[in-house]
Amino acid sequence: MKHFWRGGELFVWMTASGVAISLLMVGGMLALIMVNGLGQFWPATLQQVTLKQQETVIGQVVGQEVIPNSATPDRPDGQLRYRYRVGNRDVFGAEYRWVNAADIVATSIPEDLVFVERREWGPAYGRITALAADGTMPNKDGSNWSEIVTLVEQANQLRRRIEHLERDEIGEINYRIEKVRLQRQAFMLDGQLSRREADEDRLLLDRIAALEQEYHAKTLALERLHNEAGQRALLLTLSNGRSMRLSLDQVIAVSRPNGMNRIEKSLAYLRNLWLFLSGEPREANTEGGIFPAIFGTVLMVFLMTIVVMPFGVMAAVYLREYAKQGLLVRLVRIAVNNLAGVPSIVFGVFGLAFFVYALGGTIDQWLFPEALPNPTFGTGGILWASLTLALLTVPVVIVATEEGLSAVPRDFREGSVGLGATKFETIRHVILPCALPGILTGLILAMARAAGEVAPLMLTGVVKLAPALPLDEYLPFLHLDRKFMHLGFHIYDVGFQSPNVEAAKPMVYMTTLILILVVVLLNWAAVMLRNRLRKRFAASAV
Q: What is the mean pLDDT of residues 398-419?
């Protein structure tokens, strides 16, 4: 026993158990997130349930439980109840309902039950009984399923034309009008116009008038398309027997999951997953996709990396190689280490006060006076959010870089200096390549933390729904002043601010999974880059 305690085998087993438990916890968390997130895209079976109260329920089972305090001598295990997603929130007032198992008289799975994905009010369940051609009178029986699917696809094509007209064509006209308006405003800043400026101002007025005429023509075309889109509709019979008119303009897709085979369900699953990754949010972010949030997260981390890398490395090189080691340097190191423990919301407040109000406001006064009082950089944006996160993560890079620099053998420095190299040449060609793994390790840790931070972003640029991406076809293409969406904030918003919390749960799980994947991919890319640079510089450094 004495040999056992001295040998430390118990400590080895304890540490190994700690690692195993940690891995199991991480694996369990990922499994929970994947099951609850990825499962929402599978076309679920629709049940038709007849209750004792002569009521019919149509929906998909999303859960079951034992009714609390329902144990009786006849049922010692308690009574079971099922949770159905019945959709039609605009009709029933709620998207989910509980059904006691004891109240169910019969359950069936008819193939003609239809799942309708709508742009508003969530999904609708029922039977398509007729197809209204002119928006008033149904003229054709809805039994021809292929015709219904074709009409829905045509309606979606028309919707894409409407969106293209609204965003691209009319959006471009609005952008050009705003640019011309700012040019005129710049002439007015001096209070009086010279003859040349007066001539240019008249040309700008003519240009605005021409753009407004073009805008008017586009809006007329848009109105015609909206009228055309609203002429066709589906008539859906709900579980309570009521018929509901669904304009095809509001229908995204229709499906009959009970009539699908495995292959059709797999294709539908992949389609739903792709639409989630590539689409835009709808219904207060509880429906639709998360592409703007993915793009905003990746772009913000990329900008943060560009800023934090050189500043962190230069600070560490100065502290380690050039600064005279003494009390002041020790105090600076203590300050840097303590900075890493400051709550992130404090960095957000600092970023709002310094970057947004002070620096951004000054930039607006110097470079964009014609746009004032509307701020350009004097409001939250992806640039200020990235700089705030760079400030938050720079201590991690400094500490990791210093550790990497201290790990370089002293013989390398002395050998380089002995061969006639200056200190700068030694740092550049010998020390930094050797310390590169440590530098990139710090960068990886910084990227992982930046991707998951939310609190400082809420003050410096992230929003619930951004009208446009920071990257588009207009000069300067990358608009650093624009607000953006972020996966972490999206999770907070959908999970805690959504009016339909129950329907948002799968979205929360799926967004969480995507955020984890984004962090893993960014770290994986950084690790691959580190390994590649390590091989490249290992030989040249010695």
A: 86
Residue 20 binned pLDDT confidence (cut-offs 50, 70, 90): very high
Is residue 347 helix, strand or coil? helix
98 three-class SS:
strand
Burial of 516 (0-12, 13-18, 19+ CB in 10 A): middle
Q: What is the pLDDT of residues 266-322, one digit of tens each?
A: 999 999 899 999 988 887 777 888 999 999 999 999 999 999 989 999 999 998 888
How distant is the alpha carbon of residue 512 from its chain centre?
9
Structure-token pair, residue 195: 């003859």
Note whether 297 and 469 are within 8 A (CB).
no
CA-to-CA separations, 92 to 87, 97, 438, in angstroms, rounded: 8, 10, 59
In the numeric block, which tokens belong to residue 539? 């030989």
* Average pLDDT over every residue of 219-248: 86
Structure tokens at 499: 């009016």
Tell me the sheet residues that pair with 80. 66
- Tell me the β-bridge partners of 281: 288
Please report the pLDDT score of residue 387 as a whole number: 94
Q: Left (φ > 0), alpha (ψ -120 to 50) or beta: where does 285 sit?
A: left
Task: For residue 22, give both structure tokens.
Answer: 């940690």
Q: Evaluate the omega torsion of the peptide bond into residue 123 and state whether it is cis, within 30 degrees of 0.
A: no
Answering whether pTM is above 0.85, one says yes
Q: How many helices (H) and strands (E) in the chain? A: 18, 13
455-486 pLDDT per residue, tens: 899 899 888 888 788 888 888 888 888 999 99
User: Which residues in 233-286 belong to E strands, given as ranges?
Assistant: 233-237, 243-247, 251-255, 281-282
Q: Name 369's Cβ contacts closer than 8 Å, sequence gap at least 6.
A: 186, 189
Q: Are 396 and 449 in contact (CB under 8 A)?
A: yes
Residue whose C-alpha is closest to residue 346's, from 252, 448, 459, 443: 459
Q: Which two tokens stand for residue 377?
A: 């950089």
Q: Are 461 and 381 spatial neighbours (Cβ–Cβ below 8 Å)?
A: yes
Task: Tell which residue, 293, 333, 347, 533, has the closest CA to residue 456.
Answer: 347
Q: Using CB atoms within 10 Å of the CB of residue 14, give its burial: 0 to 12 exposed, 13 to 18 middle, 19+ buried.
A: exposed
| Cβ-proximal residues to 367 (8 Å cutoff; 6+ apart), any chain | 376
Indicate the Cα dihedral angle 323, 328, 329, 334, nearest 10°: -160
